[in-house]
Each structure stands twice: as structure tokens, then as C-alpha cells.
Write a structure and sequence with these properties.
Elements lengths: L8 H8 L11 E8 L2 E9 L4 E3 L2 E2 H4 L3 H14 L5 E8 L3 H19 L4 H7 L29
Parallel strand pairs: 3-5
Antiparallel strand pairs: 1-2, 2-5, 3-4
Helix pairs in contact: 3-4
């Protein structure tokens, strides 16, 4: 008669793991991305590649190719340009910070959709929130660090 081993913590975790569920084509994924003071809220679903920002066409909202490529970079890196629909709401900040906030939100939503894409997006730096913001003005100074000109006489 074979001896049965007692369940260890490691075996219990392996047994308790739920099976990964396939992504439903009708399911939408929500994510938030930030850069400086810009905030982008994104709804991502499978579709034909349509992107709208604040109920306006993507190309109208981001007029230059540079801003468009910054925002679309996570989709281009994974080859999802024509298979995902994106609906975004963006507010605050400048237009460049808004495109980078959209990039951050898109990367987060794609990871929610497909966790295997996390390594690729992490290497490209799209999942890291850029912490750089404008420094506040200090009393006695003209700007954050600019002191008034010193005069000896």
C-alpha cells in the first residue's frame, strides 16, 4: 500500500489556483493613466481599431504624428492596432502630457486584457508612472529655485 504524503502549503496553493479564463470578445477593460497633471481614463474592448478621445476622433484631438505615435505606441508594440477599440476621456495638463497619460492608461488596460503582454510593456517603460511634476515656487525666490539677483553695492 503506497504511503500518501501530507499536503504542504506549496501543494495546497497549486491545487487552489483557478484556471485562467479566456478573454471574452465583448468584455471591456478600464484603466487610468497619469502624467504630470494630465489624467486619462480608458475603456478598451476588442474591435476594429477605432480610437476616440473626449468623443472626438483621435487624429483630430492629437493633430501631430508625434503625439499620435506616443499614444499608440503600446498598441503598435504588441501588434494590436486593428483589433482593439479605445474610448478615452482625458483632462488637465498639456497636450503632450495628455498623450503620455493615454499611453500609460492604454498599457494598463492591455495588461488587464492580456497579462502575458506585461513583460513587453514593462521593458518599454509604459507601465511605470512618470513621477516628474513641476516644482512649487518657494517664498523669497522668483521661481522654484531662481533666487533674486544679488547686488554687492
Amino acid at each position: 500500500m503506497p504511503v500518501r504524503k501530507a499536503p504542504t502549503k506549496k501543494r495546497a496553493k497549486e491545487e487552489a489556483k483557478p484556471e485562467s479564463k479566456p478573454i471574452l470578445p465583448s468584455k471591456t477593460f478600464y484603466a487610468v493613466g497619469r502624467r504630470k497633471t494630465a489624467v486619462a481614463q480608458v475603456l478598451v474592448s476588442s474591435g476594429n481599431g477605432a480610437i476616440s478621445v473626449n468623443n472626438v476622433a483621435f487624429e483630430t484631438y492629437f493633430p501631430t504624428d508625434q503625439l499620435q505615435s506616443i499614444a499608440k505606441h503600446p498598441l503598435a508594440a504588441l501588434g494590436l492596432m486593428n483589433s482593439i477599440n479605445v474610448k478615452a476621456k482625458i483632462h488637465s495638463g498639456g497636450i503632450h502630457a495628455q498623450s503620455e497619460a493615454l499611453r500609460h492608461a492604454l498599457a494598463r488596460a492591455i495588461v488587464g486584457m492580456n497579462p502575458e503582454s506585461r513583460t513587453t510593456l514593462k521593458k518599454l517603460g509604459f507601465l511605470t508612472r512618470d513621477p516628474r511634476v513641476k516644482e512649487r515656487k518657494k517664498p523669497g525666490l522668483k521661481r522654484a529655485r531662481r533666487a533674486p539677483q544679488f547686488s554687492k553695492r
